[in-house]
Amino acid sequence: MKLKLDHIGFVTETREKIEKILKDLGVECITKEIPDPRQKVSASFANIGERDSIYLEILTPTDSTSPISNFLKKKGPGLHHLCFEVDDIEKAVEEFKHKGFQIVCEPTECEAYDINLGRSPVRTTKIAFLFIPNLLLIELIEKG
Questions:
Q1: Counting beta carbons within 10 angstroms of the beta carbon of residue 43, is it exposed (0 to 12), middle (13 to 18) or buried (19 or more)?
Q2: Please, what are the domains in the chain?
Q3: Which residues have C-beta within 8 Å of that of residue 10, sequence separation ≥ 6?
Q4: Which of 60, 92, 94, 99 could pair with 86 as two cysteines, CB 3.0-4.6 Å apart?
Q5: Cα 11 vs. chain centroid, distance in angstroms?
Q6: pTM of the full structure
Q7: 140 pairs with which residues across the strands?
Q8: Mean pLDDT of the 100-127 span
Q9: CA-based nearest residue to 83, from 143, 136, 7, 11
């Protein structure tokens, strides 16, 4: 299975603080916030790699039941996950299950990713979340 880093997820209560830091670092291209009702977050992206290669995803909760609301209460703003692009998300999830990863969110459609990055895919992008116990949350993405 071939993995390619797509983005780094960063959570915060409001995006203004991280947006200012990014602009101070010279990162100007930040997309508008797009809500994702399935994940209960709003997301925007900043291109931090070479031309459309790696993004910083800025996530804010849309309400107190958002999965990242609990994360923010426990740990505060910061690194939330690494996202890797895969060719076949269902196959990748099965492989990671066999390796002992915990599945947090089975593959699901994520229209917000396509909308936010101005993509018009043939099919909707899919995402899944896996947890490496006591270490890190991993997101997989199969672009549409």
A1: buried
A2: 4-142 (3.10.180.10)
A3: 18, 56, 57, 58, 59, 77, 78, 79, 80
A4: 92
A5: 10
A6: 0.88
A7: 84, 128
A8: 84
A9: 7
